[in-house]
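Lab notebook, bench 4. Still working through the backlog of constructs that have no structural model yet. Next entry is a single chain of 80 residues. Request: give me the structure tokens for it.
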Amino acid sequence: MLKNKESFNLEKESKIINPHMMETNTTNKTNFKDFKCEPKKKKIRLADNEHKPILGQSSYAKAFPNWRNGQNDIFHEKHP
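Model written out:
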């Protein structure tokens, strides 16, 4: 506090110690609880091994059969 006709002195003001007890707890300190969290691990499921019949031929091979014409067969046309 400044007395009458006393000038403001910053150095003197900074040395004033607050005699009152202060509460230093914050809402964050009281409410927040520090905890550790770990990411969830994915459960690996293996596929059931069902022995089902597999079609051994593609739909293309069924629609267009191989005539084995790539073996250098020579075709001759007969003259009338």
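Notes after review: The mean pLDDT is 78. The radius of gyration is 47 Å. Flag for follow-up if needed.
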